[in-house]
Amino acid sequence: MPLRLYNSLTRRLDELRPLVPNKVTMYHCGPTVYSSPHIGNFRSFLFADVLRRFIEDQGYQVIQVMNVTDVGHLTNDDLETGEDKMEAASKKTGRTAWDIAKQYENEFHECQRLLHVRLPHHMPRATDFIAQMGVIIDDLLQKGVAYQVDNGDVYFEISKFPQYGKLSGKVIDELEDGARVAVNDKKKDPRDFALWKTDDKHQMQWDAPFRGGLRGFPGWHIECSAMSAHYLGHQIDVHTGGEDNMFPHHECEIAQTEAHTHRQFVSIWMHARHLLVDNKKMSKSLGNFFTVEDVLKKGYSGLELRFALVRGHYRQQLNFTLKGLDEARAAIARVQQCRQRLVRIETGAERKGEADLTAATAAANAKFTATMQEDLNVSEALAVVFDFVGECNRAQPTLASCALALQFFARIEDVLGCFGATPQADATGDAPAELQAMLQKRQDAKKQKDWATADAMRDEIQKAGWKIVDTATGPRLEKA
Ligand SMILES: [Zn+2]
Predict the structure, then answer these.
(1) What residues pack around ion ligand 1 (CB closer than 5 A)?
(2) Residue 316, SS3?
(3) Which domains occur in the chain, in start order?
(4) What is the pLDDT of residues 65-113, one digit of tens each?
(5) Across-strand partners of 258?
(6) Which of 64, 100, 215, 222 could staple 26 via S-S, CB 3.0–4.6 A?
(7) Distance 16 CA to ligand 1 centre (A)
């Protein structure tokens, strides 16, 4: 079965068909580093993480880029008015915008670590890509798709890109009627968005990286076009973000990039729904606003928070509660206990049995794959995991079955990353006494030229998931 993902652009499930066979390029809009990341941000980042892990599980090589916005994200995205979020935070705290960016970028990376995120291959900062943004702005100006006004601001001219609105479904007329007209008569059209802005008081400023421009700073949207092109080329396979990024941010990314390259920017656009807390939109005034640190301070682990944030289907609203964290704790413990028992049986600490779980494990693997291949249905996939846990717990499995079941759990962990590492108890140490005895019996049989017994012992050892390695000091057992 192919991997099918819901594409916000085509509004249907589309098969993932990478532009370069077996290699998937992925871009995710990253954090704006002006305050501590909250758990709602991380729902979308963790969705991107699980998506990347599953695509890798399916045998593709993935290159994932996530930007860090440290300039140009205005406090009012819709109208391109308002203050740069970095500058606003600077005013509030009396610290420089550069200082604030550095602090919260570090904090973001720490949260990624705590939440067991597989780090994107590249995490560029917007402020390091001013020159690359300039190349695109220059080209858009030359093509007449963008224009510069008297004070030096540069705007993208929406009417020159008729496909504007194709992602969000907001048609131009609707926008015209619905748009609150900004007090900005510099623009030809209130919907035109900024590529470059000038402001003497702005702390982060650069000489214009395009011909004929004035000193200033970039708008928010242009950074993602520049950084995705730099690392992934002009066309990418999958672009993800939170649902609030779809308009205007992603619509603007499409306009800039496609007007610049005349090629389709992204094959599959994916958007994670918002996180609710206690069934309400998270807000500081309602007292239901949590940063990652807030949750950890309540005594929960990063793994438990990760589970609580990835457990639902990414296209459904997820309601976060503290009770949900308790459920996460119980769910993780259930899987860990099951794995620990399998390890104990495998290592001879607990009696093995006769139950053959080969078919059950194969079925669980197949079901897990199928549910994940159908638009990354994590909630169904978790149901498959817990059914399998039940099956393991009811059985007294053979050694070979234990090995297979543990392989399944290792795969689940590789994809979802929310149950923790395989229990280490004896698993990587010496082989269980039972297997050591078989190895000795094989050596004795070989000495007596009893090849049938020697081969039978070797087969038993292999079935249990171990292999015989010949060394200078004699054979020893290693995990296969
Ligand atoms: Zn972006």
Answers:
(1) 29, 224
(2) coil
(3) 4-272 (3.40.50.620), 320-416 (1.20.120.640), 433-479 (no CATH)
(4) 999 999 878 876 555 667 888 888 888 888 998 899 999 999 999 999 9
(5) none
(6) 64
(7) 21
